[in-house]
Amino acid sequence: MYAASREASARSREALRAALTGSDSVAATTGSELFAVVAVLDEQRSLRVALADVSVPGSARAELSERVFGGKVSPATQAVLTTAVAQDWSRTADLVDTLVLLGQEALLESAADSGKLDAVEDELFRLGRIIADSPELEQALSDRGKPAQAKRELIARLLNGKASDITVALAEQAVVRQKTSIGDAFDALSDLAAARREQIVAHVQAAIELTQEQRDRLAGSLQRIYGKPVAVHVEVDPNLLSGLVVRVGDDVIDGSAIGRLERLRRELA
To answer: Which run of H or of E encompasses 94?
Structure first.
């Protein structure tokens, strides 16, 4: 984002904080309704452009949002939306992307308030791995020609009775508006959930399943390196032969056998 959009996003986030009263039901409703607003904006380009048109006074854009969405969303959601559209955005897409992010944050706050944040983070990570391990499923969810409703229904069937409503809502939004790979979209959600708990996420590939003691030891080592608590998410990849590959943000620590063999091959070439 350019400077104008960064400032607009920060003010919109402040409005979200003020609108949420600490009740998980208010946060859940706000998150779901912000996603619904985004769905409308995705479908109606003229409205999307009008709400972010910096040639029009912010007060007029706020009034337009109240005419369109007033009475259809809760007061908390309307307060956030009114503040967001009144800001000056560098690009129309930045407004919509910020509304998505605020919806995600509201749902994660609801999960935290109800003591479900750990479970939601774990469910999102596992769902991302399931999709990544199934080329057919990943293709179906990544198909830009597939209607959004069809993708929502596919996620709903996949998670029916297996995940919380918050996880389902976040997952549906991730696949409908994905701008990166499915795996990256779910990793970003896991990172956002971890940030809510003031943690960072380590995405770990291991040749074999790790014991809880090994996970705890790895988390402790990474915490000493990065200076803050680390949530360790592990997926098993037998192709590594042995060892681990650890990714924290842009940092990659490759201690796998296949990684060592590849480095040796490059040295000998």
So the answer is: helix 92-113
